[in-house]
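To illustrate the input format used throughout this study, we show a single complete record. The first block contains the structure-token representation of the backbone; no residue identities are included at this stage. The design step must infer an amino acid for every position from geometry alone.
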């Protein structure tokens, strides 16, 4: 009888301990470029994730657990990103990390996430983040080769066979340049000019003058602000009438603001559906969520939601779904990898052991900037 009492007491102790662990808040880490040159990415990402965590906790949390968010500002700096990722893992004991905001930072943090076995959901687009697949690493923006393909489909439709490319010399630009050259060659295009600019350059007229002399059918710029906005202004100043494409890296109103509506007029780019959600058909599977996100963001921050904030939204949705299967880092990792037809801001995600991005061409719409706003290209 005494043994039975001891056994029951031990069982109760274990159950109480398990309940206590289950009741502990799940700690989510985040690395965003909230300030610095890439703040147009990091600020809406931080705002979005804070908003979603607050909303979830107001409803009792996710899978019975409250969420605790720890956000650090990387300022877009690679070295700082690694230091802060280490702090999130070693000091803050997070179970999952959202971010970083840029491709270069993400590539730098990946070895640490892999070594420490902490799932990382990057908000950057470079294809090398998830290809080849890394066990603990995922990302929410569609791969840059998907964006390249979307542009080339449009260019082919208008018989724009001779292309000039101008790309920024950072991780995002280098990856885009690689994909542009490879896919252009495979699809029968000719790259007649291949120019590069630095992330801090403030004038690209020299590169654009060379591009103008090559007489391309279209120009494709690959980068994130402020560089592409400067290029848009330089194109206007040089009187270049050639069609200008931008990457999905400028798919926010901030680009139009920086370039000026006159210089931005007519520019084409692949963008997530959030930019044109009010122009989507009523049966679009993402429409309800996109409208809800935009309304909530406006209510909380006084401005419309951006594609970049949407990358953090996607990460939150994927992590929340994974939490229903368990809250350890390994369970979260497995849950994200098993995501199937998850509707979110950037698209409908289907992950697998061989695909840690989970998006295809349907993630993008081709848009044109018209009178300071987005126009859906049919």
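Output of the design step:
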């Amino acid at each position: 009888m005494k043994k039975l009492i001891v056994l029951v007491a031990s069982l109760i102790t274990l159950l109480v301990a398990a309940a206590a662990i289950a009741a502990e808040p799940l700690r989510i880490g985040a690395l965003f470029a909230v300030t610095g040159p890439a703040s147009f990415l990091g600020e809406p990402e931080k705002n979005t994730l804070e908003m979603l965590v607050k909303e979830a906790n107001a409803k009792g949390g996710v899978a019975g657990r409250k969420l605790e968010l720890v956000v650090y500002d990387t300022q877009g700096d690679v070295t700082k990103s690694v230091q802060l990722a280490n702090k999130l893992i070693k000091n803050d004991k997070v179970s999952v990390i959202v971010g970083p905001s840029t491709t270069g930072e993400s590539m730098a943090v990946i070895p640490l996430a892999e070594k420490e076995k902490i799932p990382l959901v990057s908000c950057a687009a470079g294809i090398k983040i998830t290809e080849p697949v890394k066990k603990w690493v995922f990302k929410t923006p569609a791969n840059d080769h998907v964006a390249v393909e979307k542009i080339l489909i449009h260019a082919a439709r208008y018989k724009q066979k001779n292309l000039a490319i101008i790309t920024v010399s950072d991780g995002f630009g280098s990856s885009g340049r690689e994909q542009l050259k490879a896919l252009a060659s495979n699809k029968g295009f000719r790259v007649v000019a291949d120019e590069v600019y630095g992330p801090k350059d403030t004038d690209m007229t020299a590169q654009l003058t060379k591009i103008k002399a090559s007489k391309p059918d279209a120009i494709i710029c690959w980068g994130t602000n402020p560089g592409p906005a400067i290029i848009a202004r330089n194109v206007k100043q040089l009187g270049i009438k050639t069609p200008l494409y931008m990457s999905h890296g400028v798919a926010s109103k901030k680009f139009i603001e920086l370039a000026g509506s006159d210089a931005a007029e007519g520019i084409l780019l692949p963008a997530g559906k959030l930019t044109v959600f009010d122009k989507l058909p009523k049966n679009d599977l993402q429409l309800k969520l996109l409208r809800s996100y935009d309304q909530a963001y406006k209510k909380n921050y006084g401005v419309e939601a951006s594609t970049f904030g949407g990358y953090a939204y996607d990460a939150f949705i994927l992590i929340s779904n994974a939490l229903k299967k368990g809250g350890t880092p390994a369970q979260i990792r497995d849950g994200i990898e098993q995501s199937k037809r998850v509707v979110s801001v950037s698209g409908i995600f289907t992950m697998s052991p061989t695909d840690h991005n989970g998006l295809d061409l349907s993630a993008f719409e081709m848009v044109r900037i018209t009178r300071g706003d987005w126009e859906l290209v049919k």
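Structural context for interpreting the output: The radius of gyration is 22 Å. The chain has two domains: 9-143+287-361, 145-278+364-376.
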